[in-house]
Amino acid sequence: MERAGPHQIIAITDSRICKGDLLERIELLAQSGVRAIILREKQLGASEYRALAEQSLAICARAGVACILHSFIEVARELKASALHCQSSQIAHLPRLRREFATLGVSVHSVEEYKAAREWVDYVIVGHIFASACKEGVEPKGLKLLESIITLESNFARRDSACGLESRISSPRCFDRRPSLISLRGSKNHDSSSTILESQSSFTKQTENLESTFEKQAECEKVDSSPALQGLYAIGGISLETLPLLHHLPISGVCMRQTLMQTPNPEDYIRDTMLL
């Protein structure tokens, strides 16, 4: 797993505590040096969220920053979004969502949730680590949960390496969405159906053209399938004061909500954070 040092900073939106207009805040964040913006507005209805997501995706695209939609699966599909973040309550949906999104992530609050989600996602957000206004009255997990998951991931990575596999959470994901070329050409065994197919020159030419097309699509998909985020991220009460407590941990980055929604100048705050 890539260690972020300085850490990658992920901005989490929350219009309920945002200082000023949310879209203006997203504009500022997109220019601030954050790695990505997760549009977390669970209190909105689907139609409201869709309207907000359309504008947010456009803002982030212009700035070259990843905008990750949060929990609204159907909206993400309708907008053909490349990235989706799921709640822990949506873990059961991850297997079917895996092929729909180039970047798929999830929030977890226990080792059990992490184990259930790990095989299907590019990144995991673990929390909440420190006391947070977002989870007021809920006991924070502290560093113990994050350290347990890091240890577990290390074990998974060693197992995958021993089996000649890449760790799914610590390596880029690339899925072959092409139709099987064997199914187009017929069986590779020299049975009668295969012989008939191979003997039809027009069909062979057609499949060659299709193969060329699929190869070009595959090259594009290799680029498109590179995840916007990858690895483990900590969330909950992350600030200039608490961030140093995470520096010794091999995580990819941290997520910030309240501070980035309220600080007068997000760019200065991110710069100060990166200098820690």
From TrEMBL:
It holds the Pfam family TMP-TENI. One of its GO terms (biological process) is thiamine biosynthetic process. The keyword Magnesium does not apply. It comes from the Bacteria. GO terms for cellular component: cytoplasm. Keywords: Thiamine biosynthesis. GO terms for molecular function: thiamine-phosphate diphosphorylase activity. The keyword Zinc does not apply. Pathway: Cofactor biosynthesis; thiamine diphosphate biosynthesis. Gene3D superfamilies: Aldolase class I (3.20.20.70). InterPro entries: Aldolase_TIM, ThiamineP_synth_sf, ThiamineP_synth_TenI. Residues 10-150 form the Thiamine phosphate synthase/TenI domain. This is Thiamine phosphate synthase. It comes from Helicobacter canis. The lineage of its organism: Bacteria, Pseudomonadati, Campylobacterota, Epsilonproteobacteria, Campylobacterales.
